[in-house]
Amino acid sequence: MKSEIDTIKQIYADRDSNIDLLKNHQGLYPHYIVEEREKIYKSIINNHFYNKNNLKLLEVGAGVGMNLSFFHSIGFEYPHIYANELSEDRFEKLKNSFPEVTCFSGDASEMEMNQKFDVVFQSTVFSSILSNALRIKLAAKMFDLTNDNGIVLWYDFIYNNPKNKNVRKVTKSEIKTLFPNAKKYEFYKVTLAPPIGRRVGKWYSFFNRFKFLRTHVIAVIHK
User: Fold this and answer.
1) Quick one: the chain helix, strand, coil %, rounded to 5?
2) What gap in Å lies between CA 158 and CA 162, rounded to an integer?
3) Could you read off the pLDDT of 110-128 as tens digits, one per residue?
4) 70-75-76-77 Cα dihedral, nearest 10 degrees
5) What sign does the CA torsion over 174, 179, 185, 191 have?
6) What does the pLDDT look like over 161-171, one tens digit per residue?
7) Cα 84-87-93 angle, rounded to 5 deg
8) DSSP 38
9) What's the predicted TM-score (pTM) here?
10) What mean pLDDT is predicted for residues 192-221?
11) Any idea what DSSP says for residue 99?
């Protein structure tokens, strides 16, 4: 019987070879959603850290590294960025694309590290984990790897996708349950619902004014 980790790896492999899913990463919609959340990430980092010299960041489930260039652009030095990836194919691309970044593969909930980070970041990793036990284990690991007064930075969706049984929502209340010892939480509702966003094109900003049409949250979990 496959473990959940093996199942997740297979799902990632299937996604990477699905032509229809790859098309979803083209066009205006991906541009707008990335621009929106990066603007908020930058504001959060700038407001929380007055001095970004030598800040350390860990991304859990970094994929091929699309977020790493952004974090570098706002002041994180590549030697102070660490990246984890479960999929072997994505990991090879990640490692080759970012030679100055410390990259390591495997199950992030089993990470053994002798240092902590000012920012521990995840983007749509938890919604790919169906097991409550594994969610709890990974959240505990991420919180443990966060420096005192550091933050867990989070992006994921809060509504189920009825067309995709391989993912499951992570609500704001569950986030609080996963990080029970946090000092405080901040939530920003973002990302126009994909079925709408892919259709409205350049009208993204207009429709995104209506918060009830947004499907994801950026969370800041303060240690």
Assistant:
1) 45, 20, 30
2) 13
3) 988 889 999 999 999 999 9
4) 110
5) negative
6) 888 888 999 99
7) 75
8) H
9) 0.89
10) 96
11) T
Distances (CA, A) of 160 to 23, 165, 195, 202: 21, 9, 13, 26
How far is residue 42's CA from residue 74's CA, in Å, rounded to a whole number? 7
pLDDT tens digits, residue range 145-157?
Answer: 999 999 999 999 9
Backbone phi, psi, residue 30, to 5°? -60, -35
Residue 23 clears pLDDT 70, i.e. is over it? no
Q: 3-state DSSP call for residue 167?
A: coil
Number of H helices, E strands in the chain: 9, 7
Q: For residues 202 and 182, give the distance between their C-alpha atoms in angstroms, rounded to a whole number.
A: 38
CATH code assigned to 4-222: 3.40.50.150
Ranges assigned E (strand) in 20-165: 57-60, 81-85, 102-105, 117-123, 146-157
pLDDT, tens digit (0-9, with 9 covering 90-100), for 31-63: 999 999 999 999 999 999 988 888 999 999 999
CB burial readout 33-57, b (16+ within 10 A) else e: beebbeeebeebbeebbeeeeebbb
Does the pLDDT value for residue 11 go beyond 90? no
* Closest C-alpha to 76, from 58, 88, 95: 58
Count, residues in the chain: 223
